[in-house]
Amino acid sequence: MAQINPSYKKLAAGYLFPEIARRTREFQAANPAADILRLGIGDTTEPLTPAVVAGLRAAVERQGGLEGYSGYGDSEGIPELREAIAREYQKRGTAVTASDIFVSDGAKPDSANIQSIFHAGSIVAVQDPAYPVYVDSNVIAGRTGEASGGCYNGLVYMPCTEKNGFFPALPDRKVDLIYICSPNNPTGAAATHPQLKHFVEYAISQRAIILFDSAYAIFIRDQSLPHSIYEVEGAEQCAIEISSFSKSAGFTGVRLGWTVVPDAVVAEETAPGEIKGLWTRRQNTFFNGASNIAQAGGVAALTDTGQAEMAGRVDFYMGNARIIRDGLDQIGVTAFGGDNAPYVWMRTPPGIDSWAFFDKLLSECHVVGTPGVGFGPRGEGYFRLSAFGHRENVEQAAERITSRLVL
Amino acid sequence: MAQINPSYKKLAAGYLFPEIARRTREFQAANPAADILRLGIGDTTEPLTPAVVAGLRAAVERQGGLEGYSGYGDSEGIPELREAIAREYQKRGTAVTASDIFVSDGAKPDSANIQSIFHAGSIVAVQDPAYPVYVDSNVIAGRTGEASGGCYNGLVYMPCTEKNGFFPALPDRKVDLIYICSPNNPTGAAATHPQLKHFVEYAISQRAIILFDSAYAIFIRDQSLPHSIYEVEGAEQCAIEISSFSKSAGFTGVRLGWTVVPDAVVAEETAPGEIKGLWTRRQNTFFNGASNIAQAGGVAALTDTGQAEMAGRVDFYMGNARIIRDGLDQIGVTAFGGDNAPYVWMRTPPGIDSWAFFDKLLSECHVVGTPGVGFGPRGEGYFRLSAFGHRENVEQAAERITSRLVL
């Protein structure tokens, strides 16, 4: 008699984004004339850039010809793309090489799957608030107990608060796997070199592994801040980095990302190269490579022209972030982020919790955002506004917030 | 201290295809003049068809424009593609609907991941020989003991032999999950309606789940044979079907497949719809949808023109299979398959095992194939030849086999 994986039942029933969609749908049904503006999900809105379109187009034509057609590729990705990604790391002074790069169909699958190469009994630490996939993938893998009070038993939460500038202190007990996202989703906080160094030293001393999500690195404006954890000495011994073309090149739908696993990363009783070998084996068994067309798009995005165009898109979205921050400043709302990340993290008004503010913003301004508590218990009392949107929509949303929100 | 998932160490060290690549490389190095022909990996060689290229091209142009750009899609796939796939099932008289279809980046990832929604203690049955991913994914998930004599302890092997026409008898003990691939890789055998009915009735009576891989269904020439397990009454209560655009549309590199999870599929103590809900949740957490460009290619492949072109490709590869079978017949080698599947499964000469025959074929004919034992212990004494290849290469390989192989 087949039985299901019982860990699925531990997952909080109302997943964040479906619940947002449900409330929005209900509001729209009750208010059919309302022109709802969406700053909820961090989804790109601007078209692929000309260099990327040219790269994709050429790949399609190649696949339609006898000479250019290619079947299965290496699950690790095409060499040209792995080399182009490694070059970006090298430009920032790191020793990452093409053989460390594992191309994938996005940072989300890699963030969710990376735990599977580690022991089922691993103790896991996450930032609170954090991108929900780190938590959910470990719940499903059976590394937690039941949830109570918004926290899963057995999971170690590292509070990210106004007081610590939204970068956590070291875990308060022994842990094996540590998820860090910088620039952070949802708080928009970008870690400094000393902050990351503190964690790298801790991880090496404890032989813990840092799973570092740098999907938003391209949005960093302050060039003194690290874009990759490998800019920190020793990180190659203890950190795996996951990143993405989703937000930089607008590939949320095209699907392309990568994971960096240096030879030097080691766990308990593993030799150098062994963790990398495990990830290779995992990908060879469970994955068959990212789409060859998407990979050609990635190569195009990393050419000089492609990068200049990506920088333009990043500037555009960061311009949106500025408009949102300015709007909030104007009405005296305390807000964070939006400087080095495409998310603005605002404090909800006194006495109004995250979900109540969601409803308030929707009914008063017809604007959708994301309740902070959806990212973890320390997100309560905060609210995330995404800078992804067409300019006129973001301007209009900011205008509505400043003129209609009752504070 | 981070520790690795110890199940990885149970995997047989020399994975089949890397070992083939290694021996081929060594032979080429020692014989630089040898023009090696590859009938090893089942990898498509003919270009994408015009309708598919047009569909992909249009998708690329759409993504480059403000109007047509789309970001994140549903992880289940775009509605147009889910509907087009469901229509193919309906044409064969099944009740599969679009809401049962989960579009993915290929049958391999789905075949490997599907086990994760079931209990870690599930007893798993596989055909022997079988596509290695079913076994390896369950080894990694910890559902087996160590390997001995080519078999993993705790795994139930269902022998597929000449005597049973390469379709197995029911498992010899109680099992929870049953993998069946038809038409089969590597044997090329396609299951009949009564054969599948026997398993469906067994699964319903035991409340076991059949994981049915139909990636090669389009190659079935005998139209009395089922293309989908849902052509068998009751299968919707006990079967999940996995399939692919890889071999039909030549998408081995483009990456596109799907899984069918009907509402009626139930396990122990689950309500109708619950297993489907689990797979939905799994995909929403670990996956972010197949590439929107690849999906547009899938829609194009399923138009009338696209299907006519796919049928042409299938005929072409099946013509290759005929050439290989005829060549083997000519020299008196006993062979199977190649009628309803793009694989020919030949008996190795007396006293020559699978790997010895690999070396013999390579050195005498400069042809690469796949040792049957790589698919399981009952594959010993057999050898797989793939019908994927350019016509002139397949003709030349058959010519070399008939004229040079020393029997």
Description:
The structure is a homodimer of 407-residue chains. Chain A is globular. In chain A, helix 2 runs antiparallel to helix 8 and helix 9 (304-330) runs parallel beside helix 11 (391-404). With 407 residues, chain A is α/β, with parallel strands linked by helices. Chain A has a seven-stranded mixed sheet with strand order 2-10-9-8-7-3-6, with helices on both faces. In chain A, strand 4 and strand 5 (151-152) form a beta hairpin. The first copy, chain A, has helices at 16-30, 50-63, 79-91, 107-113, 132-140, 193-206, 274-286, 292-301, 304-330, 354-365, 391-404; strands spanning 37-38, 101-104, 124-128, 147-148, 151-152, 156-159, 177-181, 209-213, 239-244, 257-260, 335-337, 343-347, 367-368, 370-371, 382-386. The longest helix of chain A is centred in the last third of the chain and has 27 residues, at 304-330. The interface between A and B is large, with 84 and 84 residues.
